[in-house]
Structure formats: structure tokens, C-alpha cells
Amino acid sequence: MATPGDVAPLAHGGDLSAARALFPGAPEPFLDLSAGINPNPYPVAQFSSDWFTHLPEPGEVPRLAAIAAEAYGAPSAEHVVVSPGSQIAVAQASALVAPGSAAVLGPTYAEHARTARLAGHEVIEAASLEQMADSSHAIAVNPNNPDGRILAKDALLALADRLRQHGGLLIVDEAFMDASSRDESLAAEVGCGNIVALRSFGKFFGLPGLRLSFAITSPKIAAELSAALGPWPVSGAALAIGAQALADKAWIEKTRSALLASARRLDAVLSGAGLQVVGGTSLFRLIETGRAEALFRHLGEAGIFVRRFTEQPAWLRFGLPGSEQGWRRLEAALRASVSDQS
Amino acid sequence: MATPGDVAPLAHGGDLSAARALFPGAPEPFLDLSAGINPNPYPVAQFSSDWFTHLPEPGEVPRLAAIAAEAYGAPSAEHVVVSPGSQIAVAQASALVAPGSAAVLGPTYAEHARTARLAGHEVIEAASLEQMADSSHAIAVNPNNPDGRILAKDALLALADRLRQHGGLLIVDEAFMDASSRDESLAAEVGCGNIVALRSFGKFFGLPGLRLSFAITSPKIAAELSAALGPWPVSGAALAIGAQALADKAWIEKTRSALLASARRLDAVLSGAGLQVVGGTSLFRLIETGRAEALFRHLGEAGIFVRRFTEQPAWLRFGLPGSEQGWRRLEAALRASVSDQS
What we know:
Two copies of one chain form a homodimer. In chain A, helix 3 packs parallel to helix 9 (236-246) and helix 4 (86-94) packs across helix 5. In chain A, helix 6 links the parallel strand 5 and strand 6. The first copy, chain A, is built from twelve helices and 13 strands. The longest helix of chain A has 24 residues, at 249-272. In chain A, the strands form three sheets. The first copy, chain A, has a seven-stranded mixed beta sheet with strand order 2-8-7-6-5-3-4, with helices on both faces. Chain A has a four-stranded antiparallel beta sheet with strand order 9-10-13-12, covered by helices on one side. The first copy, chain A, has helices at 16-22, 50-53, 60-72, 86-94, 111-118, 153-165, 202-205, 219-229, 236-246, 249-272, 292-301, 324-341; strands spanning 31-32, 80-83, 101-105, 122-126, 137-141, 169-173, 195-200, 213-216, 276-281, 284-288, 304-305, 307-308, 315-319. Chain A folds into two domains: 4-41 and 250-341, Alpha-Beta Complex (Aspartate Aminotransferase, domain 1); 50-247, Aspartate Aminotransferase, domain 2.
């Protein structure tokens, strides 16, 4: 591919073919803890070929937008864009601003800097919100991936105010907000006109292959983004399952508690193996250790795939096991790793 | 919605809620002939929750691109962009060209002019390829929707040559090329660098709700468009079903013949009712009649929904019935319409 170097494809979690190439002798099936995705997905009770054989009807998209607005606390359906993934939404939002400087609060999910570069912006990695105020647009992930850092809503709104003075845009990727210990979402605050908050459906609901996300923004920007996506932005399956899942308050409530309990259990398992948890959300935990590379290989050889980071070689990110068998495998592999070391 | 008037949402086929609102007394189920979509879709033998619960692995997208390259006759997988619909692909391609003049060969599918306007271009409706040569980009539909007009490959390549001299881009929407009586696809010719040919998966395979299409273009443009779509451009279902269907040469061959036979049968049925068929592809036929509005209403009241066109009040477009029962309903309603008139 002729992609220039600085926008070349990036490594991501969830790539089991990479795991198999790295650890050809590992026992199958792999326990994939490399992605921050709910391992106990929203149950899809019944499949329907109608999802695919019909064009979604025009009313279905605003209907899903209305359900999402209520679930995420957006002012109205007109503030919500139904999108086939946050990646496309970030690319679209970055293109709303004339090419200039894009400040990305780092270190964070690497696709955002790449996407902003593709839209023609010069990308600056900022270390604080303060450093982002003069850029033509600012991108932050809240809570952050992979360290779970939470930005306060008030601080973000103050940044949006400063950006607005020179026509700047604030994009906040809230992909893990559903699994955050504090709700600092800007979903209810997008009326001020220069905020785009992105919500990922796939992570919390455990259905990333559905390709469904939402951009929550002013009605003006929402209309622009929706118009560019056209009348059929997502699949019939995404419309049907999304509408059902986002309205299922009991499942959402139960899942939030269950993920929190699992995240605490993961902390206990990791601490029990002498590992220091330095951050995370309810969908993943981040550890920092001088023996990250050795542990990554040890786990990989045991068929457990976690996420490492080229730029941060002491970090490893662990997703949640989805079954008791998975927990036992992880515990056993971590115990063996501790014995190896001693 | 705050959408400016000239980019406001458009009416499309396949909108049964509109049909129900227009014809509240019509017998259900509606026979929907308003969209140019294969009514006998590629059989999805088995549904898999894996389509949704996993992120597609990085290798799956190039694998589908390679299968699509072979099916459509593109030079290689690197010439193919896997996209969640042609709408997004046209928006992306229109954004490759600095805002200038977009010439759309008309009359045609109205979304293209709207999309070009959204990308900041001044849109000119051209009556011939000749009139398009000086624009910054040119958009043609081949075969055209709804009249089925076929543009010769050589004429399009000559236009691409002229556009290339001033950095212009040629976008050809080949959504109905699989159902064309002549293959004038530019898929094999995209190496010259300024052509984007768009292929729709959903229409021929009868699975429009899957949201899958392909942009066939130079490796350089393909890499740019793919990069903006990100690592997971389409759903797991689209990757799996698309790869299976596009490699199923027997089904494709059989379906091409079956659609052609159905289109001939539709011509006979329409002619038998005294209607003049003025164009079409194997997925739809267009008639022109002074009593289009009356016929539209007559059919609608009988529960048969066809496509009319605000700008061309004498035109009606008929999709193919998918069952013998559907054919009989259409024949009976047309017969009754003739008796009404006489």
C-alpha cells in the first residue's frame, strides 16, 4: 500500500492472527484479553435475514438516534449521528475544521493522531488540556485508553469555551465512558456548538463486529455529519440490535455492576501476582512492570493474549476474562510466571 | 435538522413506511417494487454471533478486497477499498478533490449531486460526457439509474484522460453493472490514476441492509480512502457473507441469467398492459406514460409500490417481483388498470 509512513496502519487489540504468528505453539483456543471489550455480550436472541435483505427504512435511523439520545443523556435525537464506527466519525469531525493544528491529549489511542493527519492537520501531542487551547481542534479520550485517566467535565467545558473563541472544535472520544468509574460525559453539554462526543456501542455491549457508534454534537454539526453518511449509515442488524440493547436499562445496569466487579477481581488477580495496576476502566486494566516483555511472552505461550504498547514498553493492558475457565487460566499462567521469576 | 435546502434528505425506493402513509387501505404485505434490488437474495445459510462479538481481524479486510478484485476484474486487492456503502465512498472520493466544480451526468441518482455539494463543490448537471471535461471532478452512473443508459468504456476513458490533464477525477458509480446487458466497467482500467469505480454489493446479491460496497481505484487513492475508513470499515457479517458470495461463481452466473429472464418477463408484462418500456437494467425497468400518476396510485392501492420521480412525472420504475405470487399480483393490478382506463 502506498500509505505514507506516518499514517501507516497501526497495531490493535483483538488481532488473534498476530497472536498465532507470535505464539505458534500456544494451546488453542486463545484467551483474548488484548481488546477492551465486554466478553459477555448483549444477547442477540434471534437473527433475522430481514436485517440484510431490506434497505433500512428512513424512520429507523432517527428512531435509533432517539433511543441513543436517551441512553447517553444527549439533549435530543437531533444531537445524535448514527455512524458505522467511531473511526469514520473522527475522520468526518476532523474534516469539519480547515486544515490547521490538531492537538491530541497523549499518550492515547493512536488512531486519532493518524486520522487527524489524514485530514491534513499538523498533529501536536499535548500533555495537558491547557496546551490544547490554541489549536484548531483538540482531541481527548475520556476516560483515556489505556491508562484510564479521567478528565473532569468542567475542565473540558472550559477548553471548549477557549476553542470556541477562535472557531476551534473539541472532539472527546468517550468510547469507554459506559465503563468509567465516574460519569464525566459531555453528551448533555453539546448544545454550545463546538463539541463532538463519540460513544462506541461495541465495547460496552460486547458487539464490536456490528460497527455501530454515535457522534453526539450540535444539531448543525449532526446534520452535516449525517448528511455525508447518507440515508443508510449502518446495517439493518446494527439498527435492530442497537435499538433493542440501548433501551434495555436492566441489562445495562446489571452489566455495569458486573463489569465493575470483574475489574476489581482482575485487580486482585494481578496484584496477587505482584503486578502493579496503574490505571484502567471497568473493561481493561493497565499494569506497569519492568518485566512486561517477558510476561507478554509467558502469557502468549500459555495461549493468553494481552495488549502491549511499542511506545510504552513497560505497560501491558489486560481485558476481562469472560468465563470462570478463563479466569482460572489467567490465574494459573500468572502464578507460573511468578514461579519462573523466583 | 439544520440541513440546508439543497442538501436536504431525498426520497428513495424501499421506503415502505412512505407506501403505508400514501396507501393506508392497501392490502398487506406490500409488493415492494420501488427499489432496484434482487428480490431473491444470496442465501445466508447460517448466522453466526461471531460476526458481531469479535472485532474483524486485520487480515479479513484485504482478504475480502482480493476476492472482490477477482469478482469485479480489478487489477489487484490493492486497487480495492472495502466500504460500508457507496454513499460514504462517494463522499470520500468527492473530498479528494479541492472544492471546485463537480459535473454530474444527469438526470441520475440524486444523492451524488447532493454529496458533491456537501463536499463543497459547485454542482453542474451535464447532458453529455463532453460537457464534463473541464470540471474538477466528474460523476457518472453506468449503467444509469433509472433509465439504464450505458456509457461506453472508451468514452469514459477518454474523459478520464482529459480530466487527468488538469488533475480532475472521474467517479463512475457502477452499482448496477452486475445487472447490465453490456459490461462497460472501468474496474480493470483504474491503473491510470484518476478513476474511482464504485461497485455495490447489496443490489445484485439482494442484501442492501448488509452495507457493503467497493471502491476500485489506483493503489494510491485506495490507500487514502481505506486509511480514512480505518481498520474495521464494515461489519463482521459483511466480511463473512461478502467473501462467500463474491467467490460463488455458480450462484453469480445463475443469478445473472435469472435476472435477465425476469427483466424480459417484466418487459412483456408491462408491454402487455400497453406501457412503453424506455430503459432499465436487469434489476429494474423504466416506463414512460402520460398516466404515470394515476398508475402509481392504482398500483399503490393494490399494495404494489413502485418508484416515481418528482423531476420526471411521466416516469415510473419497476423492480422485479420475487415470487410467482408477486408476478400474478402485478399482472392482475396492471390488467385492472387497463380496464379502468378503457
